[in-house]
Design a protein that fits this description.
Layout lengths: L1 H12 L4 H14 L4 H12 L4 H29 L1 H19 L5 H16 L1 H11 L6 H29 L2 H21 L2 H7 L16 H21 L1 H8 L5 H26 L5 H21 L4 H28 L6 H58 L4
Amino acid sequence: MLSYTAQLYKDAYSGLSKNSWYLSIVMLINRSGTMVVPFMSIYCIQQLHFTIVQAGSIMALFGVGALAGAFLGGKLVDKIGFYDMQVGALLSGGLFFILIGFLQSFVALAIGTFVLSLCNESFRPANSAAIAHYSNDTNKTRSYSLNRLAVNLGWAVGGGLGGFLASLSYHLLFWVDGCTNIVAAVLLLFLMPRAAVAKTIKKPDTATIKTSAYKDNIYLAFIVLATLFAICFYQFMIMQPVFFKIDWHFSEQFIGFLMALNGGLIVVIEMVMIHKLEGRRNKMVYIIGGVGLGGIAYILLNILPPGAAAAVIVVVLVTFAEMFAMPFMNSFWISRTTPHNRGEYAALYSMSWSAAQIVAPFFGSNVIAFGGFNLLWWIFGGISFLAAIGYYYLYKIMSRPAI
């Protein structure tokens, strides 16, 4: 049994390119400092004494900046390449994370948050294009899962450490988050020197027809549904920590543990799960299951009795929801691209998450102010089920034989 398990893990991680591993190491360092965003709402309410609506507005500005950053990043990836975009985004994002720790007024923090997110989130399309460049048809989903593993291992470290640092001083979060961004940029320059990367990138063939992502109707429908899913998922990152603190009276340390549990489960399970599932069924089947499972998790927050056990159950369900949905969402969009339009497709996918990052905190905070957390979880459970139904019908449309 032990040897079978060891072989299973070996098979799951084999066959990935060296540069895919390097990109994941850079991502791990970067995400190990992910502390500001999950604790930002609590910081605004408890340290800066903002209202819950003001805190939601600050988080919405993360989304506005991310939307602009994703669009700009996607355009620049197809012009200057994914390498320079990654380095520039990491360095500028790191500096702005440190800067916003000194901003105290609502207006100043709002402006700083927007600029930070614009710089920081322009990294996403570039990173997605880089992963696609260094993978092939047989390992694309696993390459993205390896990157997600790095993100979530970093999330586990950052969430756990962030809870501890927040109990000492919230200002430490901004310094650690900023410094890890800068260290990640330096590491990228060291592991993948620019001259070496440039040799692996072929210039686009100008004769190649470039299909626009904005004319791909199946992809546009996919993006709308992905945005609905992302709006729901961001409640887990943004409003659920506030819920656990205000409504269920958990400590920052326990909230940090729940974040670490999410990342830890993904690190241990996702790569092996994807290795066993990939190619067995249509990608859309796994996406439908994951999105629906997320809806069940949110509904359970209204049904289960408050307590640590209920919180763990919900976090585990949300974690499996994202493990089923997100890797196959990535492989779905990348399957519709060519090397010459990948930045545009990556930007549109990143923009869907950025748009959700705008809507989720603003809408969520206003729902809480109007009807409390119970109404919030009923609404977002329903939206999750609606998105799952939408993906089911999209799957049926794609399965129809061409006439």
